[in-house]
Specification:
single chain; 673 residues; alpha+beta; Beta-galactosidase, Chain A, domain 5; TIM Barrel; 8-stranded antiparallel beta sheet; 13 helices; 37 strands; 18% helix; 34% strand
């Protein structure tokens, strides 16, 4: 007897299994199309019931999402009734890819895939595909509209995608229409939510952590979530145009991925790369000009009303003042200096010129002087939200920067609406932001986008999109009427806004006295300000304060000058949303590790096992920690710096003050000799 082995392609094997399952289900009834994660724990089932398409999700046989509706309401018809599944195919994929920059150098992309062809049983026989990808840490799915006769140009009035959650979980959210996502994330049960933006982070009663978001938002409106009447079902709510439509679409086209991280603990949320994996690979062939780094800026002085953005006797963006900042940056190893208020138009915030500078700012001289000192100018384009004024000037403005050696631009869109009518998360805004990023590639410019649409992982495809705001950052500690960001704020945003990608929070304030608005101030200790450089990831990391305040505090400033902005590994040592988080990261360009640990309003002891360090090696740990009596309200400045020797077997236990933190540099002892 001979045995013949045939190596079928994976898709054929999965199809054989699928059709065998159909045959078995004909006997048993109730067949559902199913795909599971590579480790077999997460299961997604899709079914057609009475002409409607539903999906459900479980992990280890525990329900995550109950039966949840899929489909659309179009401008002239419905596309969620009378539907049938006409074909199902399966595939799997496993690779490791390298990031240009990031929280680690290499990312594992391993998933199983199920693609379902959906068609109307009658009428115009319109069709679309549903593509599910299931990872060990969650899943994503999207709708794909192929080219077809009866569905060419069409208008989406509503996307009916549901997330029928299996419990009334605790959530952390902000309202979807809050300006530029600059809100405080508050805990709430699902049934108490209004319409909220994503990421929406949840903790279940049995200890799982979930986060709903989206990936690869392209030529579409951002997804928000609105609870159904039953209280625990969340429905997609797309940000509308000012005229009421949600999305104008032309086939062939795909929607963004609807994503959910499913993690066993808080660390699993922070370490998931599901969103990045659902974006397209890097499209920029030569990335040598894309350089992460640290910078300072003529910025905090404006918030403290020491300077003005517009020209006048207190104008901040002068040639002389910029040179002074360049000298400081050069002395302390910073890569760049951000200069806000250099260009004409700050008097009315509507008619900005992006090529004409105020008379007291000499672009040629400033960039020449910076090149001599090894420091680049960080360009600044505040639009005031007037896209119609910015886009006609953009190519000329980018040319100006390129010709003067500027390779990074901070863009801004302050204002509730773009062009006075469109929201920052609608299709109009999404397409504008993409145009800026793609145009910037031609001029080899990195982008720091403020007042953006919520990030969805586009930095994988266009790694010149370095960082974005979209968060209630440290500037609120300068002028917010509520007194500034509360201590718990930075222990929440890594698990909410931070899941969407790098955030330009701008930590590093050393002077907590606010003469401009005495009732508002930074509500942390000095040690916590240092720790934020590790906890809050941004590959372009700004040290926020005026240089005078750094010159007055050289000892703690040492940590900022040493801390990199690009990493090869990330470890979450401990975390509890709203209470504390401790993160260690390895420098991409050395053997050094850096750690940051922060707490909310309660004092605590940081507990960090150092098993991430190389075995059999002694490290010097330089520790910046809260001193005795430190307190974010009464004594934010007291800081102790100590050095100890540690190994991978060591455990650090360090007391932290209310609103406090700890920052640590780990250097191999042999590297110091």
């Amino acid at each position: 007897m001979s045995i013949i082995t045939i190596n079928y392609p994976k898709k054929i094997i999965y199809s054989i299994i699928f059709y065998l399952a159909i045959g078995l289900s004909a006997c048993t009834g109730g067949f559902k199309d199913t795909v599971m994660s590579p480790d077999g724990k997460i299961k997604i089932q899709v079914s057609s019931e009475d002409g409607q398409i539903y999906y459900a999700v479980s992990k280890s046989d525990k329900p995550i999402l109950n039966r949840s509706l899929l489909g659309f309401v179009l401008q002239d018809s419905d596309l969620y009734k009378g539907l049938t599944i006409t074909d199902v195919t399966f595939d799997s994929f496993n690779e490791t890819w390298e990031q240009v920059w990031g929280e680690e150098r290499f990312v594992t992309n391993h998933y199983n895939e199920m693609k379902l062809s959906i068609q109307e049983a009658g009428g115009m026989s319109r069709r679309f595909d549903l593509l599910f990808r299931v990872f060990n840490d969650g899943f994503g799915f999207r709708y794909e509209f192929p080219e077809q006769e009866n569905l060419n140009d069409f208008v989406i009035m509503d996307e009916l995608t549901e997330f029928a959650l299996a419990g009334n979980h605790t959530t952390w959210s902000i309202p979807y229409d809050i300006e530029a996502y600059e809100g405080l994330y508050r805990p709430s049960s699902i049934n108490a939510l209004d319409t909220v933006c994503t990421p929406l982070t949840m903790e279940t009663s049995d200890g799982l952590f979930l986060a709903i978001h989206e990936a690869n938002l392209t030529d579409y409106a951002a997804m928000n979530l609105h609870p159904r009447n039953d209280g625990t079902t969340l429905k997609c709510y797309l940000t509308p145009w000012s005229t009421g439509e949600k999305v104008f679409m032309k086939a062939p086209h795909v929607t963004p991925w609807r994503t959910m991280i499913i993690a066993d603990n808080e660390a699993g949320l922070l370490l998931s790369r599901l969103m990045l994996n659902l974006n397209e690979p890097n499209r920029i062939e030569d990335t040598s000009w894309i350089q992460p780094g640290r910078y300072i800026g003529i910025w905090w002085g404006m918030h403290m009303k020491e300077y003005t953005w517009e020209t006048g006797p207190k104008h901040g963006a002068t040639t002389a003042n910029t040179k002074r900042y360049i000298d400081f940056a050069s002395k302390h190893g910073f890569d760049g200096v951000l200069v806000e208020g250099w260009n004409k138009g700050w008097e009315d915030w509507r008619s900005f010129s992006f090529t004409e500078s105020y008379p007291d700012f000499d672009m040629v001289e400033v960039t020449r002087y910076g090149a001599e000192k090894g420091v680049k100018l960080i360009g600044h384009h505040e639009t005031g939200g007037w896209v119609s004024n910015y886009e006609p000037q953009m190519e000329e403005a980018f040319t100006l920067y390129r010709d003067h050696g500027v390779n990074a631009v901070k863009t801004g869109y302050v204002g509730t609406l773009l062009d006075g009518k469109e929201m920052h998360s609608g299709q109009f805004a999404v397409n504008h932001y993409r145009k800026v990023i793609e145009t910037a590639v031609k001029y080899r410019l990195m982008i720091d986008n403020h007042e953006p649409v919520m990030p969805t992982g586009l930095q994988r495809t266009y790694p010149n999109l370095m960082t974005m705001e979209g968060v209630r950052g440290q500037e609120w500690d300068a002028w917010s009427n509520d007194g500034g960001n509360p201590p718990e704020h930075t222990t929440i945003i890594p698990f909410t806004r931070g899941l969407a990608g790098p955030m330009d929070f701008t930590p590093g304030t050393f002077n907590f006295t606010n003469k401009a608005m005495p009732g508002t101030r930074v509500q942390t200790t000095l040690a916590k300000q240092l720790a934020l450089f590790v906890v809050l990831f941004s590959p372009l990391q700004m040290a926020s304060d005026m240089i005078e305040n750094y010159e007055a505090n050289p000892a703690p400033f040492e940590f900022i000058t040493q801390c990199p902005a690009n990493w090869s590994e990330t470890v979450v040592a401990e975390a509890k949303i709203g209470e504390y988080v401790t993160i260690a990261r390895k420098d991409r360009n050395s053997e050094n590790w850096f750690a940051g640990s922060i707490t909310a309003e309660n004092a605590r002891e940081m507990f960090m096992q150092l098993d991430f360090l190389d075995k059999g090696v002694t490290y010097k740990a330089r520790i910046f920690k809260d001193g005795k009596g430190a307190h974010y309200e009464t004594d934010p400045y007291t800081l102790n710096i100590e050095e100890i020797e540690v190994t991978a077997d060591s455990v650090l236990v360090i007391k932290q003050a209310p609103g406090g933190g700890t920052a640590i540099i780990f250097t191999k002892k042999d590297d110091l000799q």
